[in-house]
């Protein structure tokens, strides 16, 4: 054995012997024993407290989730009022982009949302619903079946629908029904 190895062996023995001695000493002395019990008591209490904290946090998460669900349902009822209150269903024509348009409101049976359908331009000469057609360059044109009046390069139907929906959402329709 080298000197270094002897040193390590001695130190290890001293530590383990003194460790055992200290443990025995603590076990025999009621003061240390009760101190140890106190440590155990604190540990158990803290551990149980953590458990309780965990339950509390879980409860809090469930509570917040339920509250949010109820809250979002409340918002939905505000956004989608009962049908007797939907006065915008009377908003079925408007002048958009210098042209008069007419449409129907159709309720989607799946999601319950209302969509503007059958959006058509109206002839400014004879008030007839015009036929829509795509031009050579995919531009949107319309022609009156009665008086052959024509509109060229109309705004797309999707844009018209977006404007109609926006007018409803922002209340602009009220002055037009
Ligand atoms: Zn016409």
Describe the structure in your own words.
This protein is an alpha+beta fold and 177 residues long. It has 3 helices and 6 strands; from the N terminus they run H-H-E-E-E-E-E-E-H. The protein has helices at residues 3-28, 30-79, 157-169; strands at 93-96, 99-107, 114-122, 131-134, 140-143, 150-154. Helix 1 (3-28) crosses helix 2. The structure holds zinc ion. Residues 123, 125-126, 128, 144, 146-147, 149 line the site of zinc ion.
Q: Please tell me how large the radius of gyration is.
A: 40 Å
Largest sheet: 3 strands, antiparallel
Shape: rod-shaped
The averaged pLDDT comes out at 83
SS summary, helix count: 3
Number of domains: 2
Helix and strand sequence: HHEEEEEEH
Percent of residues in beta strands: 15-25%
- Portion in helices: 40-55%
Question: Biggest sheet: strands side by side, in what order?
Answer: 1-2-3
- What structural class should be given to the helix and strand makeup? alpha+beta
Separation of the first and last Cα atoms: 105 Å
How many strands appear in the DSSP assignment? Answer: 6
The kinds of small molecule bound in this structure are: zinc ion
Unreliable parts? 73-80
What key phrases describe this protein's structure?
177 residues, alpha+beta, 2 domains, 3-stranded antiparallel beta sheet, rod-shaped
């Amino acid at each position: 054995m080298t000197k270094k190895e002897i040193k390590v062996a001695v130190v290890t023995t001293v530590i383990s012997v003194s460790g055992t001695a200290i443990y025995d000493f603590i076990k025999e002395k009621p003061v240390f024993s009760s101190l140890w019990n106190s440590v155990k008591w604190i540990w158990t209490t803290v551990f149980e407290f953590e458990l309780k904290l965990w339950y509390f946090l879980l409860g809090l998460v469930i509570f917040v989730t339920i509250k949010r669900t109820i809250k979002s349902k409340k918002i939905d009822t505000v956004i989608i009022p009962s049908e007797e209150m939907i006065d915008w269903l009377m908003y079925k024509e408007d002048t958009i982009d210098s042209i008069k348009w007419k449409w129907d409101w159709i309720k989607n049976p799946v999601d319950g949302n209302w969509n503007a359908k059958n959006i058509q331009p109206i002839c400014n000469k004879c008030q007839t619903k015009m036929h829509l057609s795509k031009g050579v360059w995919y531009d949107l044109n319309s022609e009156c079946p009665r008086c052959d009046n024509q509109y060229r390069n109309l705004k797309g139907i999707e844009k018209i629908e977006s404007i109609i929906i926006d007018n409803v959402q922002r209340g602009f329709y009220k002055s037009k029904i």
